Amino acid sequence: MKYLVTALSLFALPALANVPITGTVEAKCVIQTTKDGVYGNPIASKLSTTPADGGVLPVIRFDVSLADSYTANITHPTSFSTSPTLNDTVAWTGSTSVTQTSVAGMSGYEAAKVVVENTTIFDLTLAGSTWFSTASSATYGSSKPFVGGVYTALVQASCIAK
Amino acid sequence: MTPAYPEVKPSHVSGVVKVEMSIFNSREEIEWYQIELFDLNWTNIPFASSYRIINIGYKERKSFDVYIRKSDMDEAVYLCTTSKVRKTSKSRTLVSSRICSRLDGEPA
Q1: Cβ separation B96–A156 shorter than 8 A
Q2: For residue range A52-83, what is the model confidence (pLDDT) as tens digits?
Q3: Across the interface, do B90 and A38 touch by the CB < 8 Å criterion?
C-alpha cells in the first residue's frame, strides 16, 4: 500500500517547464516635471522664479535608458504665454542648472553645459536621471509696475537623439 | 517617444515610406502631444499620420505611424512629440516637453 501511494504521488507532480522572460532596453528618454515653477513678485516691476524673490524654481527630470544617446536642451522663457496687455518692453533673463543626479559622474554635466542664446544644452553621456532647474526673471520696462493679472511663461525642455 | 532611431520601412503607397513610433505619457498634467517632423535646421517637413495632435492619458502608451515622402527623406532628421500645456489661472512657468527621435541615425 505504501509503495502504491508513493507511486501515485509521483504521477500527481505538476508539469514543470522553464519559461524564459526576455526584454530589450532601447534608447529612451522620459521628461517629467518634478516641481512647478511659480513667479514671485518681489518688487512691482519684477517677476522672478528665484526663491529669494519669493518664487519657486521649476524642476524638470530627464530619465535616459542608454548612455550617450541624447542631449537635454532647455530653453528659458523670453515672452509670456499669457499675460494682461502690456504696453512697454519686458527684459528677460534666465538660466538652467543641474540640481540633482542619480549617478555621481553626472555632476560634470554642469561644467560641460553649453549656452546658446536662451537655450542650455547638456550632453547626457550617462544613463540615469538628471534633475534640472530653470530660473526665469522678467522686468517691466522703465521699472513700471506690472499690470495686475495672471502671468505664465513656457520653459521648453527637449530631449533630442544624438 | 520610442524608438530613438526608428527604422524607415516601405509603406503601401508608392513613393511614401513609413516610420512606426510609440509614445508613453509620463506627465500627469499633460493629455495632448503634437507630432512634428523637422530637418537639421528645425524647419518643418510635411508628413501624414492618423494624428497630428494625439490624446494620451497618464501612464498610457499609444502607437502611431508616420508617413513621409521618399523625396523628403534626405532632409527629414528629427521626428518629435511636443506636449501641449493647458492654460492656468496662476502666475507660474509651464514646462513644454519635447522628445525627438533621429531618422538619420542607426536603428536601435
Answers
A1: yes
A2: 999 999 999 999 998 999 999 999 999 999 99
A3: yes
- Domain coordinates of chain A in residue numbers? 25-161
Q: What are phi and psi of A142, to 5 degrees?
A: 55, 35
The dihedrals phi and psi of A57, each to the nearest 5 degrees, come to -75, 130
- CATH architecture of residue range(s) B8-102: Sandwich (2.60)
Q: What is the pLDDT of residues A81-128, one digit of tens each?
A: 999 999 999 999 999 999 999 999 999 999 999 999 999 999 999 999
Residue type, A24: T
CB-nearest to B91 from A47, A66, A154 is: A47
- For chain A, give the longest Cα–Cα distance: 104
B92–A69 CB contact, under 8 Å: no
The model's pTM is 0.86
Q: Does domain A25-161 have CATH number 2.60.40?
A: yes
Cell 536662451 found at: A118
Q: Is B86 on the interface with A (CB under 8 A)?
A: no
Each domain of chain B, given as residue ranges in start order, spans 8-102
Rounded Cα gap, residues B10 and B6, in angstroms: 13
Give the count of Cβ contacts less than 8 A between chain A and B: 109
| DSSP state for residue A57 in the 8-state scheme | -
**Neighboring chain A residues of B37 at a CB cutoff of 8 Å:** none
